[in-house]
Amino acid sequence: MSTVQISAAxxxxxxxxxGAGMMDCKKALTETNGDFEAAIxxxxxxxxxxxxxxxxxxxxxGVVIARTSADGKRGVIIELNCETDFVAKNAEFIAFANAIAxxxxxxxxxxxEALSQLQIDTETNRGTIAEAIISRTGTIGEKIGVSKxxxxxxxxxxxxxxxxxxxxxxxALSANAAGVDEAGKDVAMQIAAMNPVALDKDGVDATVxxxxxxxxxxxIRAEGKPEEMVEKIAAGKLNKFYKDSTLLxxxxxxxxxxxxxxxxxxxxxxxxxxxxxRVALGA
Length: 283
Hints:
Layout: H1 8-18, H2 22-31, H3 36-45, H4 47-53, E1 61-68, E2 74-82, H5 85-88, H6 91-107, H7 112-116, E3 119-121, E4 126-128, H8 129-140, E5 145-153, E6 156-162, E7 167-173, H9 180-194, H10 206-222, H11 227-245, E8 251-252, E9 255-259, H12 260-267, E10 273-280
């Protein structure tokens, strides 16, 4: 039994340091007689048990990190989730997500499972990423985990993080020339804002095309147009869909007189986007 009076201020201080729940922090301080370092260790030792007990909890908050390799030819996005916005905004949680992204960039794992087995060395963890996540779960008191991992490669890859780590974008460009970094960021911001479904019309899934055509035809018939005109008008609506929803055909947000493909050609002749990834938190 603790002989030290545990105040609400002490509990809040430990919560600020660790991100753990109020009751967990109070119990840790009580069990360790108010010793903050021992209380942190107490929380960490609970890690595996806490992780197991929280498997059925929702973890829809968190952060999205986009990062590129030193040579700029590969980029990764990871989404690290937690249960509350309070933890997502914690500087240590964000630093942990960045450390995971760094390992992904350096080691290029093929999947989330392979990523989880990489070694990570932070101030509080030495071991695999999976082990570090279990330990952090105990310290934080919330279910955490990597839910998304995306990789792209290209002659030049640009990363962009939007909205306080709530959305990440990677853009692969066909060349690394003067002005490409800035152009890549502009295109990444376009992707963040406009959420294109594909690079161009050739990249649109056949089921999406079929759905758009059926919707267009139903709208046209509802307007009372003759049946012989339905196919032609529907094709026009599909072309409008390509213009609005595929990256290279979209109006460039910063200069609507050009589409994205035309904008890129003004930066460097023949410059284009070869791939992109967009990850929004919880989507």
